[in-house]
């Protein structure tokens, strides 16, 4: 595996560092963007990845293990510190173990024993048993501060041009740049201009509600007994009359992550909120005032947690969802939230981004020199077919979960009581429907260790292989 390389093109036009526009050109590189064969010293297949979120990082690491050349271009200058809990399930544990990351991850993760659903007054409605982990990625594989502004795609390959003038080129481009993906928007512009973009893909992300979240300082075990336990419980508290839901998750280092979602959190007009994907500190402060009276499972109110949360550890965001129909075109393909955005609290987004990465790397690994465009197109098509059933099931489940948790009224109460008190075997059947557990075809497979064996799906079993 060669180290990620940096290639500068002396013939590029000067860069305007202040511009935030992004454009894609699907043409020959000879028109102002030379892409001569001597610029590529090795005849290796090279993947450009835009975005170092969990999808982009996992893709990069899998490519590294596959011996495929790659570079990740990330607009931020540093590794973004997550301000929310990311819960991962057994769907991604095999892969994490296969990559040799499980022991390290377990050192920084807090295993979860159960999810407890509660009423506003802390009465328990029901529980679901589970075990999750948090994610980590090793350093040194990402080029920070690379705000990708332009993509040029042609017969010879694809180039990314960044705001600071840096140019990177490769055989394919993966848009792992999140829900507001510029790679997607510009790929869609090309398709719209050609009149082949499906109507549904022109529609905006569907805004459902707001969420505010925070991560406390280390808390006193005597006052908050949950934090000292090896296995934490996730508490979901349903609002009384106002449709809010509170999530409380003990995290590593005796900290507690809290999150409140609901339309009640809007402190000014929704249309204005819709223009931004995040809110400033003043908006977060106002929202804290609105929710500080909510009861928490440890006794007292949420104010106890808010008071112990540094202000820069509190975030207010929009909760959006959307499933895109078009995932690839030419040499560009999308993964993660760039092509499917789940409501954040459904616990699906990061997992599905990782599963996208596994599927794609298994296919890239089979593309042979000289990497013809047709082989790339076939790989993208197989990737889309492979991921379609699982991502559709996940978006359906996340919508149902959101409905189950957020709805008010006696019938919603009844449904919640039913679902969270189903016999264990019925819970297992529902969970089985979502089990995919794919692994990398080119590494030794990890054997199931759970109480029940679930077939590890790779592309060989999903789409007949290549
Ligand atoms: C409160 C909350 C709780 C959640 N809980 C869970 C959970 O329990 N389980 C779960 O599975 N998921 C959860 N999620 C969802 C999960 O965090 C996301 O689905 C996941 O992080 C998406 O990953 P991604 O790599 O697709 O995109 P992102 O994480 O959005 O990464 C995109 C990256 O691309 C970069 N970028 C964007 N544009 C450019 C550009 N032009 N040039 C260069 N770089 C660019 C961005 O800076 C960013 O680093 C939660 C989300 C929230 C908000």
Explain this structure to me?
An eight-stranded mixed sheet has the order 5-4-12-13-14-11-15-18. It is globular and about 65 Å long. The longest helix is centred in the C-terminal third of the chain and has 34 residues, at 373-406. It contains 13 helices and 18 strands. α1 (54-66) runs parallel beside α9 (349-364) and α9 (349-364) runs antiparallel to α10 (373-406). 30% of the residues lie in helices and 21% in strands. Residues 1-41, 130-138, 269-277 and 453-466 have low confidence and may be disordered. The protein folds into two domains: 23-81 and 137-204 and 322-405 and 434-463, FAD/NAD(P)-binding domain (3-Layer(bba) Sandwich); 107-134 and 206-321, D-Amino Acid Oxidase, Chain A, domain 2. The chain is of the alpha/beta class and 466 residues long. Bound molecules: flavin-adenine dinucleotide. The site of flavin-adenine dinucleotide has 37 residues, from α1, β11 and α9. The site of flavin-adenine dinucleotide (FAD) has 37 residues, from α1, β11 and α9.
Which labels suit this protein?
466 residues, alpha/beta, FAD/NAD(P)-binding domain, D-Amino Acid Oxidase, Chain A, domain 2, 2 domains, eight-stranded mixed β-sheet, six-stranded mixed β-sheet, 13 helices, 18 strands, 30% helix, globular, disordered N terminus, disordered C terminus, binds flavin-adenine dinucleotide
């Amino acid at each position: 595996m060669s180290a990620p390389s940096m290639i500068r093109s002396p013939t590029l036009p000067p860069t305007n560092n202040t511009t935030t526009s992004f454009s894609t050109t699907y043409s020959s590189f000879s028109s102002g963007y030379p892409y001569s064969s001597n610029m590529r010293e090795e005849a290796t297949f090279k993947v450009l990845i835009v975005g170092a979120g969990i999808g982009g990082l996992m893709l990069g690491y899998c490519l590294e293990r596959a011996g495929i050349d790659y570079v990740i271009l990330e607009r931020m200058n540093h590794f973004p510190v997550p301000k929310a809990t990311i819960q991962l399930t057994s769907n991604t544990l095999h892969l994490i173990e296969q990559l040799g990351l499980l022991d390290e991850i377990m050192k920084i993760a807090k295993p979860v024993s159960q999810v407890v659903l509660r009423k506003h007054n802390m009465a328990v409605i029901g529980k679901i048993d589970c075990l999750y982990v948090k994610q980590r990625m090793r350093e040194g594989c990402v080029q920070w501060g690379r705000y990708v502004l332009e993509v040029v795609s042609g017969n010879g390959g694809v180039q990314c041009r960044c705001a600071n003038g840096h140019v990177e080129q490769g055989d394919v481009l993966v848009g792992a740049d999140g829900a507001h993906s510029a790679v997607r928007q510009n790929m869609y512009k090309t398709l719209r201009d050609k009149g082949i973009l499906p109507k549904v893909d022109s529609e905006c992300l569907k805004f459902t509600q707001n969420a505010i979240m925070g991560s406390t300082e280390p808390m006193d075990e005597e006052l908050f007994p949950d934090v000292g336990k090896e296995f934490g419980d996730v508490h979901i508290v349903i609002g009384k009359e106002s449709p809010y839901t509170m999530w409380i998750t003990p995290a590593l280092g005796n900290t507690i992550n809290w999150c409140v979602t609901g339309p009640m959190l809007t402190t000014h007009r929704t249309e204005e909120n819709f223009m931004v994907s995040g809110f400033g500190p003043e908006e977060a402060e106002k929202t804290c005032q609105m929710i500080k009276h909510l009861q928490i499972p440890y006794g007292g109110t949420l104010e106890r947690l808010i008071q112990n949360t540094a202000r820069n550890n509190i975030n207010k965001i929009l909760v959006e969802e959307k499933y895109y129909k078009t995932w690839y075109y030419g040499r560009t393909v999308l993964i993660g939230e760039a092509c499917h955005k789940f409501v954040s609290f459904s616990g699906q987004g990061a997992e599905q981004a990782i599963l996208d990465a596994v599927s794609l790397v298994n296919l890239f690994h089979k593309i042979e020199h000289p990497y013809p465009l047709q082989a790339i197109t076939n790989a993208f098509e197989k990737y889309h077919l492979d991921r379609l059933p699982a991502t559709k099931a996940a978006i359906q489940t996340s919508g149902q979960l959101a409905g189950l948790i957020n709805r008010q009224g006696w019938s919603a109460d009844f449904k919640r009581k039913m679902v969270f008190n189903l016999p264990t075997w019925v819970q297992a059947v529902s969970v089985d429907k979502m089990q995919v557990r794919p692994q990398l075809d080119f590494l030794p497979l990890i054997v199931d260790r759970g109480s029940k064996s679930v077939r590890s799906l790779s592309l060989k079993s999903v789409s007949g292989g290549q």
